[in-house]
Design a protein that fits this description.
Elements (H helix, E strand, L loop, with lengths): L2 E5 L2 E3 L5 E8 L8 E6 L5 E7 L8 E3 L7 E6 L4 E6 L8 E7 L4 E2 L3 E5 L2
Amino acid sequence: QVQLVESGGGLVQPGGSLRLSCAASGFTFSNYVMSWFRQAPGKGLEWVSDIEDHNSGGNTYYADSVKGRFTISRDNAKSTLYLQMNSLQPEDTAVYYCKCAVLGAWGQGTLVTVSS
């Protein structure tokens, strides 16, 4: 079955970096657009970034709130999605989820806490 498993979250100081991973299984990962979303405490779900599938060119898209600080990437050979997060700020604190919209699949989320 389709499965997405995030990892890499944790506690980081303001200005620090983290790299999130999302391991995919149960489908041909390279054929699908993949996304990152986040949900901050007490707030709604926020789209963070998309990366196109291989056939569409692998273009990337970012929310204004993370543009220039976050980088989405994928390793199709490993069926893994990544989110490199730099210059983290307290407002980046959230549970981060990966998603395959076409298949309606979500991961369980990984918590990122940015605090001194």
